């Protein structure tokens, strides 16, 4: 089974994918409409070490169709999706969303 995850942040980085999923994943550019990016300060030591970044983007809903967040759809297994859940800190929650392409994908948004 293939899961789709829309990433707009560090999960698109090859080094983060290799460490989190054991490989670089197939990705396709896409976008999420009606959202904008905010910033979240990360304090989790393992995420900081892996991403190399203290501030990560976080999606904030606006409902405004002119707001658009660029990203990529990652294709992963259910086990890799579990690994993505473990990588994301508690300030994020995973929800289903329809992307600009019409694909449905999981996406991490503000809790």
From TrEMBL:
Q: Which residues form the Gamma-glutamylcyclotransferase AIG2-like domain?
A: 5-110
Q: Which CDD domains match?
A: GGCT_like
Matching InterPro entries: AIG2-like_dom, GGCT-like, GGCT-like_sf
Q: Any idea what this protein is called?
A: Gamma-glutamylcyclotransferase family protein
Q: Which organism is it from?
A: Agromyces sp. G08B096
């Amino acid at each position: 089974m293939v899961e789709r995850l829309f990433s707009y942040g560090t999960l698109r980085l090859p080094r983060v994918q290799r460490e989190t999923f054991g490989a670089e994943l197939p990705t396709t550019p896409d976008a999420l409409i009606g959202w904008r990016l905010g910033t979240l300060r990360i304090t989790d030591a393992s995420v900081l070490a892996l991403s190399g970044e203290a501030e990560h983007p976080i999606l904030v809903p606006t409902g405004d169709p002119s707001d658009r967040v660029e990203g990529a759809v990652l294709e992963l297994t259910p086990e890799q999706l579990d690994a993505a859940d473990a990588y994301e800190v508690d300030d994020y929650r995973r929800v289903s969303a329809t992307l600009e392409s019409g694909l449905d994908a999981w996406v991490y948004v503000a809790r």
